[in-house]
Design brief:
There is one protein chain. The chain is α/β, with parallel strands linked by helices and about 250 residues long. The chain has helices at about 30-40, 60-70, 85-90, 120-135, 145-150, 155-170, 190-200, 220-230, and strands spanning about 5, 20-25, 45-55, 75-85, 140, 180. α2 (about 60-70) links the parallel β3 and β4 (about 75-85). The longest helix is centred in the middle third of the chain and has 15 residues, at about 120-135. Its EC number is 6.3.4.20. This is 7-cyano-7-deazaguanine synthase. InterPro entries: QueC (IPR018317), Rossmann-like_a/b/a_fold (IPR014729). One of its GO terms (molecular function) is zinc ion binding.
């Protein structure tokens, strides 16, 4: 995969309201980032969505989901899709390496899972900061949460605190971009509950690590997602091959 960008921003007028607060949201196509986008809009931000295809297993479906979000959310003023092959070339993850199988869910595991993409969030945040500075944004939202940082080192609060320092030091003196990880102390269930309150169209989001359709229902991402809806007594609106119960 060659590095390239697709900027669909021609359909938006990003200078229509120059005095409004504006935020970049890293839009993976999943439910956490979609909820983060709706939360940013609820807080009064105009939203610039950044979606990255880096060779992950379900990149086509994830892009479709992120693109759908750009249409569904009225606050979106720009949508940037970046294709980059370097994370796939580096490998070391079941999300990017066909030789590494995606493991079945183990919601009680403490070790770093095979789905960890080495230092991915630093790469994605760096691109997002460039985008945010170019668009004169005030904030950058990422949907990482507490059940992520138990297994992924680049989802920990300390990582985002450190990255904020990098942003402050490495951008123009007049640039002031706040790294916002609003769910960093939340569970997946907390996120789903808030998203349902905000009217997030979860039917247009995708979380499965294995398949474009239907979702497998048995990888970590599917399990955490299904568990969140099950705890709330709600039915996840996407299609699954299996819907195991993940609640006691």
């Amino acid at each position: 995969m060659t590095d390239e960008t697709t900027d669909t921003g021609d359909q938006y007028d990003t200078d229509e309201h120059p005095d409004h607060r504006r935020a970049v949201v890293l839009a993976s196509g999943g439910m956490d980032s979609a909820t983060a986008a709706y939360l940013a809009a609820d807080r009064g931000y105009e939203v610039c969505l950044l979606h990255t295809s880096y060779g992950q297993n379900t990149q086509t479906r994830e892009f479709e989901s992120a693109e759908a979000l750009s249409v569904e959310l009225d606050a979106v003023v720009d949508f940037l899709h970046v294709e980059t092959g370097h994370l796939q070339a580096v490998g070391g993850s079941s999300l990017t390496d066909d030789e590494v199988a995606v493991a079945d869910a183990d919601l009680d595991a403490d070790e770093i899972p095979s789905s960890y993409v080495p230092f991915r969030n630093a790469n994605l945040l760096s691109m997002a900061v460039s985008y945010a500075e170019a668009k004169d944004c005030d904030a950058l939202f990422i949907g990482a949460h507490s059940e992520d940082f138990s297994g992924y080192p680049d989802c920990r609060p300390a990582f985002f605190d450190a990255f904020q320092t990098v942003v402050d030091v490495g951008t123009r003196p007049e640039t002031d971009i706040a790294i916002e990880a609003p769910f960093v102390e939340w569970s997946k269930t907390d996120i789903a509950e808030r998203g349902l309150e905000l009217g997030v169209p979860y039917e247009h989001t995708w979380s499965c690590y294995r398949a474009d359709a239907p979702a497998c229902g048995t990888c970590d991402a599917c399990a955490f997602r299904l568990q969140a809806f099950q705890r709330l007594g709600e039915r996840d609106p996407i299609e699954y091959e299996e819907r195991p119960s993940y609640v006691d």
